[in-house]
Amino acid sequence: MTAPSLADTHGSTLEVVFFSLAGWRLGLQAQQVRAARGVVPHTDCTAQLEATTALLGFPAHAHPPTAPQWLVLQRAGQEHEMLVDGPVELVALPVAAIHPLPPLLAARTQLRGLRALVLPDDPSHPNMALLFDATAWPLGAHL
After folding, report:
1. In the beta sheet, which residues pair with residue 25?
2. Cβ neighbours of 42 (radius 10 Å)
3. pLDDT in tens, 93-122
4. Which of 9, 37, 40, 79 is the most buried (most CB within 10 A)?
């Protein structure tokens, strides 16, 4: 998910899995996500969502999840589960909507793995989102 590879695909799309966390809309390249699955109904997911929120570097978020789901991430030949809030959706995102972080923001952000902002021109995807790279997250960490 680096700027040169995005520039090479001008006029095309990037498959992105979008989800919610800590009140924000986040995305990962679809190739980093193996699957999504629901959580058993009436399960209290607050502690797991707080752990995911802290791992990514977001401040504590007190809102309860509305549609928690597990994302199964594929890294280094292993699967890791990460609890997120839904909806989880796969979108073919126009590459032109992806904007690498400005250098100062990239140097100062506390959000682990934040690589780009999604600012779509398409009215069917009006929301800004934060695009992350899951390879920046520590292996073996409880997601």
Report:
1. 20
2. 5
3. 999 899 999 999 999 999 999 999 999 776
4. 9
